Structures are given as C-alpha cells and as structure tokens.
Amino acid sequence: MSDKVSPLAPQSYPLMESVPGVVLATAEAGIKYRGRTDVLFVGLCEGTQAAGVFTRSKCPSAPVEWCRANLGRGGARALVVNSGNANAFTGVKGAAAVAQTADIAARAAGCEPHDVFIASTGVIGEPLAADKFEGVLQDCAARAVPDAWDAAARAIMTTDTFPKYATRKVMIGDCEVALNGIAKGSGMIAPDMATMLAFVFTDAPIAQEALQALIANGADRSFNCVTVDGDTSTSDTLMLFATGEAAKRGAPMISDAADPQLAAFRQALEDLLVELAQWVVRDGEGASKFVTIDVAGAISDDSARRIAMAIANSPLVKTAIAGEDANWGRIVMAVGKAGEPADRDRLAIHFGDIRVATDGERDPAYIEEKVAAVMREQDIGIRVDIGLGEGRARVWTCDLTKEYIAINADYRS
Amino acid sequence: MSDKVSPLAPQSYPLMESVPGVVLATAEAGIKYRGRTDVLFVGLCEGTQAAGVFTRSKCPSAPVEWCRANLGRGGARALVVNSGNANAFTGVKGAAAVAQTADIAARAAGCEPHDVFIASTGVIGEPLAADKFEGVLQDCAARAVPDAWDAAARAIMTTDTFPKYATRKVMIGDCEVALNGIAKGSGMIAPDMATMLAFVFTDAPIAQEALQALIANGADRSFNCVTVDGDTSTSDTLMLFATGEAAKRGAPMISDAADPQLAAFRQALEDLLVELAQWVVRDGEGASKFVTIDVAGAISDDSARRIAMAIANSPLVKTAIAGEDANWGRIVMAVGKAGEPADRDRLAIHFGDIRVATDGERDPAYIEEKVAAVMREQDIGIRVDIGLGEGRARVWTCDLTKEYIAINADYRS
Question: Are A52 and A76 in contact (CB under 8 A)?
C-alpha cells in the first residue's frame, strides 16, 4: 500500500449489502507484511458454482494453475486470497504450497480441497510458507460474516492506494439478486508483481457452464479493455461465484448464458466489471489522468480493439497526456503501428469534442485553447475514426508519469 | 537537439574518409529550426544504385511513400534529408511537397526527379514549405564535398543529443571498398515524431536487387533488433547507396547478395548497421543504461526474438534497470506475456554472469551484492535460457527513466 492515494480515487464508496450464501473474514497471516491483513477467506454455501478467466501468461503462477484445473470439477466452497507473496515462479514448492493451502481451507470449510479456489499476489520467486495459514483459516471460517466487504477488498491490496469494490442489484424473473465485486490492481504488474485480481459474488442460481460464458464475455468487455502499462501478470485472475441462494426466493435456475431472463443480469454484471476495471486504471501506478479511447470506423470490432490498445499502450501517447499535450501526431503514430487496416487520409481524431485532425490533415478549424482546456481535465476522451468500416471498440487507460517510474524503479526492499 | 548529452554518448568519433562517388553539403533552409543546419544534400555519381527498408506503419509519411515508389525504378543521383518537419499526415499537400522537393533537387543534380530520394524528420501534421529548398539545394549541389560526414550527421538530428556515424573498409575480391553510414534517432518517436533515419554509402559495385537483399538482411540484424520505447515512427527509413566507383579500381560487379566474394562486405555492413543502431539506443530518450538482451533455447530464432523484444519493451523491466534492481520476476513476467512457447520450470535467467534463477526458481546460490554490482554498470547484459530448443536472438534497449517522461510530457512548443 502506498502512502499517497491516487488523485483518481473514488470520492465515496457504495454500501455493500450481503450476498446470501457468502461470508467473509480477513486475518494477519504474516506472509510478508507486518501490521496489516494479508489473507481473505470467503466461505461459500453448498451448491455454489464458480467460473473464471485467468492470465494468458505462459508462465502462470501456481494458484492460477490450481484454479484452472479445478474449475467445473465440482462446486466451490471457499476462496482464499493472500497478498504479500504471489507464489509465482516457485517451482514444485509452489504447487505444494497451493495444495497445502487448499487442504487447510478444506478442513476449515468442511469440503474437498478441489472445492477451494486460491489466488496469491505479491512478491515473485519467494517460496510461500503455506503452514502460516494453519489455524488462521480455521479461525477465519469460524468468524466469517456476510458484510466484511471493505475489509476483504483491503486484505488483497498490494501497491493499491485505495480498496476497490462495487455492487449491483438486478432482477432475474421476479426475484432480485445481488452482485458484489472486489478487485485489486495498480499497474498490471507493480513492484514485485502486483497483479490484477477480481472476485464477483452473486446469489443468482446459474449453472457452471453458463457462469463461465458470462464471465468470459464480461471480461472481454471490461478487464480486457483496460491497460496501465501493457504488462501482463503471471497471476491475473477474475472469478465469478454464484451461490444459488436466490432460488429459495423464487429465482429461476439458469442453465444458458443466453437465456432472455438473464438480460438485465448480464448488463449489470458487465457494468460492475467495467466499474471494477476502471478502478484498477484509476489506481494505475502514478496515474494523474483517466483516459477513455474510442475507436470507430475500423474494419471490425477486433481491429478497432487492437488499434485502441496500440494507442492506450503507447508510452508516447501516455506521456503526452501526462503533459496535457493534445499531440495527435502520436495518435497517428499509434494507429499506424497497430498494423491494422487504416487509411491515413481518412483518419479523424477528436480530443473530447474537439476535432483536431480530419481527412489525413490537421483540422484547420480547431482552436488550440479549447483543446488545451480538454487536456487539463482529469478524465479525457480520445476518439479516433478510421473511416473504413463499422468496427468499434472502447478501452480505458491512464497517463504515464514520472511517478510511475519512481514507483517501479525503486529498489526491491 | 537537447542541451544535455546522453551519458551513453561516444567518447570519440571515427575519422570518416570519403566514399568515391558521394559528395555532401548541408544548409540552413529555415524549415523550423533557427540558427542550425536542417537540410542535407547528398550528390551521387551516375550509376549509383539504391536500396531501402522503411517503416511498417500503416500511416507512413509522404517521403516514405515517394522512396518506396522510386526504388529500383532507375538509379539514385541525390538524397535530400530535412529535419524540423516530418511531412507526415499532411495529406495531398504532403505528396505535392515531396514532388516539389524532388523537382528542385533534380534540377540541382542534373537528373530525373525519380532519381532523387527524400527523407524528412520533425514535426508531424504541419505542411512542409518545399519552396524553401529553392536555391538552397542548387547551392548545396555546387559546394558539396566528399568529407562533410560530421556536418551531414548533425544536419539530420532532431532530439538527438549527439551525431551518429560509423565507417568500415572491407575487401571485395582484391579491391578495398568503403562503407560510411550516418543515422539519427532517439526514441522511436520523440517529441513531434523524431523518427529513425539511417543512410549508408559504399563505392562497391552492387546491382540493385542484391543491394536490396543486403539491406533487408542487415536491417533485420540491427535496426530491427533495437527498441527504445516500442513505438514506431511514420517515417523510419534505412537506405543503402552503392556508387559502383570501386569498379574503376578493379572491384568485381556483384549481382547476387549471396556471392561468396561479398562475405566480408556483408559482415562489415552488418557490423556498421549494428553500430549505428546501438548509437540510436545509446541516445534513447532519458537513457542511463545500455542493455543487451540475449535469449537462447527458444523453439526458433523468431520465437527468441519475440521473447527478447517483450523483455526489451516491458516498462517494468526497463524501470527496474533504471533503478539498478535485478528484478528477475519482471523478466519472467515478460517471457510469459510474449505468448511464445516457454516452460516456467525450465527458465534460467542471468544478469551479467550471475545466474539469478534456474529451473523455475530463484537460484539458491546467487549472491545479492554481486548482482547489485552488475546492475550498477552502465552496460548491462541479461541472458534468458528458455530451455526448449535452439532458437536464439539478441536485441538492444535502454532503461526507462523519469527523464524519458520529462522529455515526452513537455508541451509541444
């Protein structure tokens, strides 16, 4: 945790009501940090289904491999998340530490080890002493409560400067269900592998396959649309747990993600994931500006996404934004380097509502002071029209500042 | 040009002898800068052949399009390079400005416009007033001399902090030929599109197709192996001109790039291109460390290159190097995100000669102080063994410092 809270931190936090079937507790297991909570235990009622998407890294952490192997194998009865040690690049010891953690949690929760999901974030390459969870997880299970969301979000922080959570209520059929999510992340990787983790909980009764489709689609429109520095953690994890408790209140069992009864839920889930993903960007290391990049007119949505990401990941675009410089030349550069079909002479670029370039040239009508005013805002929109087709994408990023360098060039302590 | 010279600048410069058939002159055309030269004119004797490789940007500058269209069409009699204006994203005006420049240069050199090659570097999106070259290029042609290499390298600088040139002498058959090269670049794109430009001149008699193969291969082992910030200019240009004047001294005419008589020349060309490319990295914006990244054991050379570039472009790796932190966790992260086949549990990582990780774990034998000493050096080597195959690659990069942000976050002036 940093002493200095991001200037883009939330002004207020939502009230997080409980999600039936979910209880939470946090503890100090002494993994690495002193004097702060570093472990989150989530108890899940019988029948809970889990789905997840994970880092595409070819060198994933041991917990990521564990979760992948156990998804869809049975239900989910517990989630254990620790901060301070990522248990990544820890060889056979890493796999053993995950198995030991699952074993301790399973005894605490009264379930099978493969019903336990695990995520770790923190230093890489250090063996994780899983025996520190002995006793701690049992104690957590005993005192877990339905309303410890703020504490849960804080327990999983590493270099985050503020806790991140969001909530929605939405109807499935005639029954209101809850969606609560927590997340951490600040830079795709921060000093010693910060990682993005997010966990969403609902009491909706949704079958595992449908749940998996929902989270995969949702990720694609949220966490896969944000970037801080283009780096990819070994440990990125986004999971969705459905306890099914709302069935007791009459919610229909959903077995197909495309079920029309799920329309509002799908939208609420996507909204919540976007909100969490945006909080990660707003806590981006050294961030002083939040940037929304819209690309339209590409030959396909995928093409638009790749162009948008090329802009969002360009250090030259990001430093220009940090300098409040409407340097559209760098946008042209980033469009060009994306490798996607683009016609220089059809490009149009807007900062906010001001069109600065059109038809492959500087817009002769634009007024520098108006653009300068846009660039001084904390939230900045960049819109690029490729002029070739109907493909669209929206991604979010932050600027690149000296503070990012200061955070990441520090010696490991 | 920056006031502050890169700490990685050369301690001394080579003596540049002439290349028969090549004359150079520089001038102040007043394109953008005041009180410094901003145009280079190179006169080339009749029979000169030209070859080149250019940016892969989908939004290339007008001069890049001009050069591509005219390569192999006839010979090359003149090269005109201006700094201060990139003539990129300038629409139809841009193409007209290039044609006008070629026309003026052709009159000055007594050749056809399509025998004139052109490169521009500087601000993007501003129309280039090519009429400023009127008179200037004629004057340059009249006073061009064989030994103005230092002045030539200076005239094409933008944000460069030092001029870049290199020279080689090499035998073809029984005849010694010369290779002289100049380059500019500092950040793939610097404020207002700095761009990488490099021009190499030889008196060897080499046919155009062979020349094209030579420069394409050479680029692949030099300029395509360096990165400062992963951004790609609209204007990157590398050209090789062969005057053929050495034929008068008995050098054999070469029509095949694979001709065994060319073995030493090929090696000398590659060496020279690597030297020029490394000077660009050593003048990388804000650079304080020069980093050589070797990847071995990948499944192919291409795979090794992609892994090496993922490491070289990672902001987290680069900031760690700036902080003199042997943060091998970030190397693992970068290997993982490259998307290439890799087995976490076979990875080995060295900083200098110190192995810090092996078999998917921290090397228990490594001594922190020895690694710290390696990281304090100005030139740092990172070696990654993937452990899967025989694929190898070497790339060069620099660190990422607060100075990079300061340079690039400045307001456009």
Answer: no
